Amino acid sequence: MHQNIFSLKQKLTGSLLDLFDSFALCISKEDYDGALELILRTQGKGKIFIWKESMASELQQLLNFLFDSEKQPLVSNSKFGDLYNLYGLTLRDQGKLQEAVQYLQNAIYKYEETNDHSILTEALCDLSSTLRVLGKTQDAEDFARTALERSESIPDIAEKQYWKGISLRILGNLETTNGNFVEAEDHLLEALDIWQEYSKTNDSQSEGMVNAFLALLYLEREDLPRDESLYKAEEFAKIALELAEGEKFPRDMARATLIHGLILFALGKSKEADAKVKAALEIATTNRLTEYKAEALLALIKTALYLENEELTHEYSKKLSSDESLLQYKSIQDEAASIIQ
């Protein structure tokens, strides 16, 4: 075994960036003992590694080492779960969704052998979100519902409310996608109550996300008078956009801007809608938010079709179908192909 690089850089572990550098150095020197020791000592800081695009290779090497090593019995189910979950999320960010699902499921199997309902709820939410992107929305809804059930078993009240709010938000959005509008409204409004209380002492990012999902719900609802549902949709969209601009998170800004554009289009304000959707596309493209880039291009295709502009329809369709980073969004690609035939 190579010299334990971790022991040489132990003093650096107070910084998250140094945690990554230490781990990457251990792997580059094939010091898997040191890499494992570092992982085991980082506790909750371990997820910083996902911020580095190159991390998947290093994590795979460490997993391979553990599978063939006598060290495996020394690693707790919780830490093995962390490694699986981290690797799955890294794969998801790289667009390798099918592989990501496999590792995220493995993480859940490991977490189920622990008594930590908090990390299990988080892992179930991660898996649900990944399945949604794959277009497996019913499976995603089922896992989100399981996450909500697990969150009720979290002993710490504040932590329980936090994960309950996230589970409700994810579940409500999926219920909207699957056409379960009444259930979606109940769950999203309950989530909004939680996040409005939470944002009094914390950031308002999650509150903004729930407002965006409520806007999308009322945009999609078919069981209410159209004027009423669109009025509610626009009100929630404006709040979501205001909160997103305040927090300055690109993903939230892209989401809220896009949803507002879709609502404006439904209201017959095609020019304003076009400007909003193009703004969302720019945010998504600049920040490599591929899911929202795909959704924005689909919206622009629909707008161009409505305006009977064949040239723009072809242009946006080509951008959507030729960008390799967008091919993973099969449901969006299928919808685009079906409407331009």
Which helices and strands occur, and which strands form pairs?
Blueprint: H1 5-8, H2 16-28, H3 32-42, H4 55-67, H5 77-93, H6 97-111, H7 117-134, H8 137-151, H9 157-177, H10 181-198, H11 205-220, H12 226-247, H13 250-266, H14 270-286, H15 290-306, H16 310-322, H17 330-339
Helix pairs in contact: 2-3, 2-4, 4-5, 5-6, 6-7, 7-8, 7-9, 8-9, 9-10, 9-11, 10-11, 11-12, 11-13, 12-13, 13-14, 13-15, 14-15, 15-16, 15-17
What can you tell me about this protein's structure?
With 341 residues, the chain is mainly alpha-helical. It is 75% helix and 0% strand. It contains 17 helices and no strands. It has helices at residues 5-8, 16-28, 32-42, 55-67, 77-93, 97-111, 117-134, 137-151, 157-177, 181-198, 205-220, 226-247, 250-266, 270-286, 290-306, 310-322, 330-339. α8 (137-151) runs antiparallel to α9 (157-177), α9 packs antiparallel against α10 (181-198) and α13 runs parallel beside α15. Mean pLDDT is 84; it is low at 1-14 and 43-53.
Q: Termini separation (Å)?
A: 61 Å
How are helices and strands ordered from N to C? HHHHHHHHHHHHHHHHH
Given as residue ranges, the uncertain stretches (5+ residues, pLDDT < 50) are 1-14, 43-53
Helix content: over 70%
Structural class: mainly alpha
Largest sheet: none
Percent range for β-strand residues: under 5%
Count all strands and give the number. Answer: 0
Radius of gyration: 22 Å
Give the helix tally. Answer: 17
User: Shape from CA axes?
Assistant: globular
User: For the residues shown, what is the average pLDDT?
Assistant: 84
